[in-house]
Amino acid sequence: MRKILATLIAIASLGYSSAFAGTLVINTDLTDPAPKAAFEWAFTKFQEENPDVTIEVNNFDHEGYKQAIRNFLTTNPPDVFNWYAGNRMLPFVRAGLVEDVSDIWSDTGWVDGNLTDGMSHAKKPMTIGGKQWGIPYTYYQWGVYYRKDIFTANGISAPTTWDEFLAACATLKAAGVTPITIGSKYLWTTAGVFDYLNLRTNGYEFHMALTKGEIPYTDPRVHAVFDKWDELVKPGYFLENHAALAWQEAIAPMVNGEAAMYVMGNFSVALFKEGGLRDSNLGFFQFPEITPGIPMAEEAPTDTMHIASGAKNKIDAKRFLIFLSRADVQEEMNKTLGQLPVNSGSKVNPDPFLEAGLDMLNNAYAMAQFYDRDAPAEMASEGMKGFQEYMVNPDRRNKILERLEKVRQRVYK
Amino acid sequence: MVLCHPIFTVPNSTQLIYRKSSWWKRNQQRLTPWIFLFPGLLLFLVYVIWPIFNSLYISLLQWDGLSPAIYVGFSNYIELLDDEYFYISLANNLKWLIFFMLAVPIGLGLAIFLNQTIFGIRLIKSLFFFPFVISQVVIGIIFAWFYNPRGVIGPFLESIGLSNYAILADENFATYGIIFAGIYPQIAYCMILYLTGLNNLNTDQIEAGRMDGAKGLSLFKNIILPQLKPATFLAIVVTVIGSLRSFDMVAIMTQGGPWGSTNVLAYYMFETALSEYGYRMGYGSAIAAVLFTIMMFYILFFIYRMYQSEKKGL
Lengths: 413, 314
What we know:
The complex is a heterodimer.
Chain A: H1 2-21, E1 23-28, H2 33-49, E2 54-59, H3 62-75, E3 80-84, H4 90-94, H5 102-105, H6 115-119, H7 123-126, E4 127-128, E5 131-132, E6 135-139, E7 142-147, H8 148-153, H9 162-174, E8 178-181, H10 188-201, H11 204-211, H12 220-233, H13 251-255, E9 259-265, H14 268-275, E10 282-285, E11 298-299, E12 302-307, H15 314-325, H16 327-337, E13 340-341, H17 352-362, E14 367-368, H18 371-374, H19 377-392, H20 397-411
Parallel strand pairs in A: 1-2, 1-3, 8-9, 11-14
Antiparallel strand pairs in A: 3-12, 4-5, 6-12, 6-13, 7-9, 7-10
Helix pairs in contact in A: 2-16, 10-11, 10-12, 10-19, 19-20
Chain B: E1 4-8, E2 17-20, H1 23-58, E3 61-62, E4 70-71, H2 75-81, H3 84-100, H4 103-114, H5 121-133, H6 136-147, H7 153-159, H8 174-199, H9 203-211, H10 216-227, H11 229-244, H12 247-253, H13 265-273, H14 281-311
Antiparallel strand pairs in B: 1-2, 3-4
Helix pairs in contact in B: 1-14, 3-8, 3-11, 4-8, 5-8, 6-8, 6-12, 8-11, 13-14
């Protein structure tokens, strides 16, 4: 009896280990239709090119993934998993749960052609402590989406300076149109406005220093950003009751003409189009210049894939990441995603928004990753709560900034 | 040494037959209840008692759940004392406690109303009980849609000439909006408790009361309400516990917003320890410990009352 049991176990473990030799376990949260389709294509293509590898995908629901990742990275790590760049990956890197992939970036014989060349502009957000920790495969631009027809009807053209922007808002408000729509229930939309105001008022280096915790929130330069914000909030240029609306719910006013502008990322275009807007009445312009002479940096949150440090199949995992970094792969995936490939050798779909975005990002001075990815998690959540409270109660600015400063001192110590 | 006792005694010349009685057989009566309780006790120990002590220990650490933990003593608690969100959460928990109690009298009223024997009353009772059966998450989402300025209540207010009002965006009143949504299933639960109590009323007492001339309100106050005391007690206990555990509604409807003003201890604990932006297991555990202490006061009071009533043989 015992002999039979032992033999059975031996046979089972044989099968077990050989099954693992060519299996790549990938954990993803790509349940939205476009990312799901893009990755299905990528997995199929990778398996075609590498017939000895079988990909096993574990797909989690998008929000649940943010909790599940803490679990599975420690208890049951996959080989490859997706996440975000910048400070968002910091807790996992610091805990030693992510594999260092600097060798892929510096091309030590893994690929033909140097990765660093094609993706050098995206290297900074992937770097912590001088090493790179993943591969970015897509990003998208942020800016101002607007109703071209409402602008034309009111005799306004897309503003390029702050004064033009304020004038446009005033004209729209006088005509009974809410100048800027926003849905701040889930907080991060307010951070988009803050980031751009800071990037344009004080510049990219200041913004990075602030999110790194090197500058107090009570600094006069931060107050300067809020002075500019006052010029939008106090005259009531933002949508009413935005604290009760999710960002998707704030699209409706713009679609039915009650509002004219939205400070948003390119992922919103799909929703605008679903609501009925077309290229003829939906436009995009770069967030206007505030302090003249400051080089224009943009927000370009980057999605990434990483190797878990506890991965069983690191060799195939690295092959997959290299595959993911190729210009042709990123080009094809981003066609489905509707976003921008990171590899500068890739081309984009002929789409006015993508082309405008690519043009803008290729010429950007630098790229921020968005407040909740540049600042550590606790600072980000308190900061965004503060922005939301400020937007509804602008006179509480001093109290809010003092509170944020208290949080900064605790979080960054 | 084995105790022997005679099992049969046959009179006259037949020998006494002795059976050896084991320790088990002797103590069977005393031990059997413990054996039946043992699996349950074991699970309770592992899944309830040990996590309580583990949580209390974690509250003394500074830990992000991923990296090694650092022992920091009571500094999490000291930080709590200075945290304005903690006081907001405590205040909100108090509001929940007070306003949730409304579920008890409303449940009683509904139960009395439904305590008739018209045709189809059983179906109607089931429909009134339905809110308790639906998942709290679903109720939260539907109410959030009602409250949405573009949902149901907003346009309705505009249609009767008042200005649109988004209660969930108002930092002063959003909590009440959530409590209202939370009370909806709780009323159904209290109603069922009272319906059961009303079904078990002692008709002799009611007859006696009627004969003495009690009618309507005085009949209700003096005869019926005292008999409903067990149901009332249970309803209050469940309602208090429900109000302190009010995580679902807050998480679904406002995520603690606007800017943290609808936070309750249960949700604040989740936000600091387990949410997307929370990596502070130690701090979250400290909040959990505070919530646990508050509940302990209440539970001890409840156990004391139960023990007293058992002693009195009620």
